[in-house]
Each structure stands twice: as structure tokens, then as C-alpha cells.
Amino acid sequence: QKEVEQDPGPLSVPEGAIVSLNCTYSNSAFQYFMWYRQYSRKGPELLMYTYSSGNKEDGRFTAQVDKSSKYISLFIRDSQPSDSATYLCAHNAGNMLTFGGGTRLMVKP
Amino acid sequence: NAGVTQTPKFRILKIGQSMTLQCTQDMNHNYMYWYRQDPGMGLKLIYYSVGAGITDKGEVPNGYNVSRSTTEDFPLRLELAAPSQTSVYFCASSGTSGGYNEQFFGPGTRLTVL
Hints:
Chain A is mostly beta strands.
């Protein structure tokens, strides 16, 4: 079983939709969970992180961790075409990050 | 600050050729990483370094070598290129390994081995 798994998509939504991106993870010892955003032909950049369980909100973005079900979610409200990118979830495994495979999101005007 | 820079941006190699992918960061970060990204497969860690002179293997180190003689530079060496090494290679750096370990990525090198 992979440590972090994501549905690869692509996920296509109309502008203004609420988007839900999800990951599952296998090791209940993980504490920090991150979401990286990667635009086409660019390197990933950190979008948000959460610690342990609960929600964290930043503008239109909300990151949520459910440790009981080992589920990580990223919600995007009022999605914009500029949100079209690949979203990678990750956790910190000591000296390194372990990434999911990424979900490609397309927001159509 | 330029952040993390990588050269070259693109390269085509023939099977058996060698090359070095260059990575430089100007943020005085101790931690540096090399990843490869295949379509739909996320990022796989090849090698990482916790400081000058110290390197360690990641998940997929076979066919690659690294060195870290300075804080700024972390080159990745491919000795005998194989088609399986066709990928996009990203270098990253971070100031810490703890907490959420924000890593800053370079723009990537697209490598094709024919």
C-alpha cells in the first residue's frame, strides 16, 4: 500500500464551483500534511499545510484532516480558471516529504 | 533572490550517455533534494542532502549519483542513461526538515533518453 494515495483525475469543473480534492494515507503517526500546487511545466509550490486533525482556512482554500479515517481534503470555493493545476498532497516523514500522485484540476470559464 | 535554479531546462540523451543536472539555491538552505516526476506518478525522491558533504538515498536512487561540496550546489549525475530515466527532474531546498518542511522547487529539467 502506498503511503499517500490520490485520485489522478483529471477533474473538470465550471468556474465558481466548489472543488473537493482528496488523499488517503496509511501511517497514523503522520502529523503534518501539506498541499502543493503545480502549474503546467512548473515546479510545485506549497499551498497550505495542516497539523494533526482539524481544518485550516486560507481565503478560498480549506485544508482538512480526518485522522480517524486517514483522509486529507482540500476544498476550493468559488473556483477560478487560475486554479487549474495539479494538486499534490504530502506528509513529512522526517527528513523528507512523501507525495501523492497528484490530482489534475481544470476549471473552465 | 533567484531561489532554486536548474540547468539545463531540456536535454535529449542517447542510451549510455552521461550527464550532470545542475541545481543551485541562494537561500542558504541546509536541506536539498532531487525528485523525478513521471506522468501521473507524483514526485519520487532520488537523493537528498542535509548539509555540505552529507548525502543519502531516497526512494529511487539506482542509476544516479550526487555530491554536495557546497551549501549552494547539489548536482545530480546520470552515468549510463537508460530510457527508464526519461522524466522531469526537480531540485528542491528547505531550511528545515521538521514541521511542515516547506520545500522550494526549481523549474525542472525535462530529460528524454532515446
